[in-house]
Amino acid sequence: MRNLFVATLLSMIASSGYAAGIRFFVIPADAGGPALQAVVWTPCAVAPEPIKVGPYRLQATKDCPTVGDARPLVVLSHGHGGARLDQHDLAETLADAGFIVAAISHPGDTATDMSRTNEASVFVERPNDIKRLIDYMLGSSADVARIDARAIGFFGFSRGGFTGLVLADGVPDFQHADIPCPDELPICKLVREGKLPPQQWTHDARIKAFVLADPLDAFPTAPTVAHIRAPIQLWASEYGGDGVLPETTPALAKLLPVQPEYHLVEGAAHFAFLPPCSDELAAIVPRICVDGQGYDRAAFHNEFNRDVLAFFRAELLQASNSNAAR
C-alpha cells in the first residue's frame, strides 16, 4: 500500500502542470553570518515569461503567489565564484513540477565578491550558509506554511558539491585530498605546510537527499565519508576542470558507504553542468560557456534536469511519506 501511495503522489506531481514563479530577497545578517542574497522559485499558476537579470535569461513569473501546500524544498549551492542564479534552468524545472527551490550567493566566493574565495573560512562557512538558508525558509520566509519540512533536498555544483558532502556528515581532509592547489593561494600554503587549523563543520540532518555535480573532492579516504547515509545522485564530467580532476568523482562514488546513483557524462567538461549561456554571459566569462567541439550543452541539460527531478521526486516524497507514517 505504501508503494502505491508514493506512486500516486508521484503521478499527481508529474501531471500538475505548474509554472515557475521567482522572488528575490535578502536573509538578514545575524550571529551566524552576514546577509545572504537569495532567490526562491515556487510553483505558480501563471504562465512564465522571459526575464533578464544581469547576464541571465530566465523563464519565470516575478512575485507570483505560491500554489499548493506541503511542497518539497530543494536548496542550491553554486560553485567557485558563482552566484544564486547559476542553476536557474534546474530550478525552473523543479518549480514547474511543484517544488520550492531556494538558492543563495555564498559571501566571499561569488561573481561579485571574490574577497575570500581562496581562504579556509569560505569552505567552513559554505555549509553554514545553507543551514541558515534552510532555517530562514522554515522560519521566516513567505512560503513557510507551504513547505514540507520532512522533504528537503540539496543540489550542489563544484564547491557546492563539497558543501553538500559536508552537510551530509562528511569531514574534509584537505591534507590528503587530490586537488590542484598552487602555493600562492593562502589555503594551499597552509595545507602544504600542515598548518591548516582544525575546523568546526556544519552538518544538517534535515536534508534527506543530495544531488552533487562534479564536487570538489576533499574526501579522499573512507573515514572522511563514513557517516554519510543519505541517498546521493552523483554526476561526473569526463574531463573535469576548475580544480576537479576527472578521476576524483568516480573514486568518491566507490568510497561512499551507501552506493550513489552515479552518472558519468561523456564528452563533458566541468562547466557543462551550468546552463547554456546567454550571449552576454558568454562575452563576460567565456571559459564557463564554451564546450568541446560537438558537445550539445542544451541537449544534455534537458536530460540532466529530467534525471535530477526524477531523483528528488522519488527520494523526497519517500522521505515525507516515511516520516508521516512514524
Automatic annotation (TrEMBL):
Recorded coiled-coil stretches: none
Gene3D superfamilies noted in UniProt: alpha/beta hydrolase (3.40.50.1820)
Signal sequence, start to end: 1-19
Any one Gene Ontology molecular-function term assigned to this protein's record: 1-alkyl-2-acetylglycerophosphocholine esterase activity
Superkingdom of origin organism: Bacteria
Gene Ontology BP annotations: lipid catabolic process
Database matches in Pfam families: PAF-AH_p_II
Keywords: Hydrolase, Lipid degradation, Lipid metabolism, Signal
Official protein name in the record: Dienelactone hydrolase-like protein
Lineage: Bacteria, Pseudomonadati, Pseudomonadota, Betaproteobacteria, Burkholderiales
